[in-house]
Every structure is written in structure tokens, then in C-alpha cells.
């Protein structure tokens, strides 16, 4: 279903709002950053970089490391202050006439486009279809299309070839793969592909490695697009500690650790989904198959459920700020089984 932009959900609401101020002591199932991160070895690497703070940042080594990780030339890589900066650069630097954002998904791309003065058209994927992509819903005239994979908040992993079908001459196809490294084997990834015209892939290192406060991510695209985005950046946009983290997080050691974590998350997610499915008779429904480090859950009177869960010590992400979702949705980050078991008991109490 297509919709024109209108007043609606708060696109600037994000999961961290659930755990600020009076929520700081709650068990956090609202933020999608992997728990127990950054690991000790990564903290040590970042700490070592602090001795170089007197010098201006030099991103060449980190850029080359990211390029090697994806088998690309460095001219196809742009380092950014998190994926959020990349959305702003895309909105401001590219000559766009008809941008389309596929929802439900992370709301920052649309917010950035709106802030840059664009009129945004939404394509809303349907709950009855499991929020799966139907490429036919995207208008042919769209010259910028944005989609997440796996998609936040639905946790749907779209087939890479179905996404690639959205590519057209004269169209920029933006794929947000911020959570792709949390899926075993990164299947369905488009990062590293050079055969898809106009493809722009965004990656974040903040989720898997617990670096949300450091702000580091990158863009993979054809050199012409990279040059346009780079011209819109300020000088030295990525700090020396963030560059150090980028180089470390794409090393063979880090990639192996991320893969192990992805398998662990898959097991923990299965435990969470099994517990939620056991509450189906009380109106709980889970979007499946879920492939990200979070799940989208439908519950009756979700706002009331969220408040009562807070009273029991748990913060969850509200779903009604995502276009295409209503007031009966919440998003849950995947945590370890002990934490999940405690949460499921609290949810059962609330539903009773």
C-alpha cells in the first residue's frame, strides 16, 4: 500500500527514550545494542588511540580495512559518524525528486529526507503478508528507495534478489544493513555487490559492538555517489577513536566473534519466540520468521502493557511510532535466556 506523507507517528522517537531518566534502572529490552559490549579487547584498542588525539583524524587505514572486508576498492567506501549521518548525507547531497521509504522500518531515513525539504512517499508493507517485501508496490517513478534488511522493527530478512529487483537506471537504492552482521552467515546481504545499479548499502558498527556512544558506520556505493556524499561531510567527520574501532571491528578476529554472537542471538531469539508463542491464547502474536536481534510483537492494549511492564522493571520499545504499525505493537530486543525468562514471567503477569 502506498501513502503520501502526512501527519502521523513521531519519527524522532527511538528506543533509548525508554531507558533515559526514570527508566535508567529498568531491564533494557528497548535498545537493539548487543548486551555486554563493547568487549574488553575492543575497549583496549580504543583506549590506546587516545594517545593520538592531538593529531587530526586520518581515515585512510580504516577505509582500506572496510574495503578489504567487503572485497571492494576504497573508492567505494565512505566512513560516517554512524548510519544516522549517512541518512542525512543522502538526503542533502543527492538530487532527489521522488523519494520512497518502505515501512515499517527505522524512521530516521524519512526524518532526514523531510528535514532536507523532500516530500516523502511511503510504501507500507502489510501485517497479513508478514511485512514481506512486494517490489511491485514501489512506484516505477521513484528515484530514491530506502529499505532495511533485516528490517527494524519487523525483524524480516528480505531475499537479496527481491531487493535487487528494485534497482533501476536513474534510481538510488538504499539498503540499511545495520543489523546484517547479527544474522548467521550474513545471508541475503548486498554489501560488496557491484552488479546492482545505484546500490547504496549502509552498515553500522554500533549495534553488534556496543558503540552507540562512539558513532561509527559506513556507506558502500559506486565512486560517484561516494564522492557526492563526501562533499557534504564536514572536515574530519569521524574521530580517531571511532576510526580505530572501525578498523578493529572488520578484522578477521572481530568477524569471527560477530559470527559466534549471531548464532548465540539466534538461539536466544528462539527461546524468546517460544515463550511469546505460549501466550498466544492471551492475544500475543509474533512476526515470524524473525531474523534480527529483536522481534516485533502484537499485544492488545500495548500502551497499557508497556506501562505495567515498567512497573515490574522492564523497558520495551513502543511500536506506534513506526509508520504502518498501530497501537498494538511492541518491539523486544533479544537478550540472554535468563533475562528473557524473567521478562516472560512479567509479561504473563501483566496479561493476567
Q: How does this model look, in words?
A:
The longest helix has 26 residues, at 252-277. The model has no long low-confidence stretch (mean pLDDT 96). Helix content is 34%, strand content 16%. It is of the alpha/beta class. The protein has an eight-stranded mixed beta sheet, with helices on both faces. The protein folds into two domains: 8-36 and 255-351, Alpha-Beta Complex (Aspartate Aminotransferase, domain 1), CATH 3.90.1150.10; 40-251, Type I PLP-dependent aspartate aminotransferase-like (Major domain) (Aspartate Aminotransferase, domain 2).
The named CATH superfamily of the largest domain: Type I PLP-dependent aspartate aminotransferase-like (Major domain)
Largest sheet: 8 strands, mixed
Helix vs. strand class: alpha/beta
> Total helix count?
11
Q: Termini distance?
A: 36 Å
pLDDT < 50 runs, ≥5 residues: none
Q: What's the shape?
A: globular
Estimate nothing, just give the exact number of structural domains.
2
Tell me the fraction of residues in β-strands, as a range.
15-25%
Q: Kindly state the percentage of residues in helix.
A: 25-40%
Calculate the mean pLDDT score and round it: 96
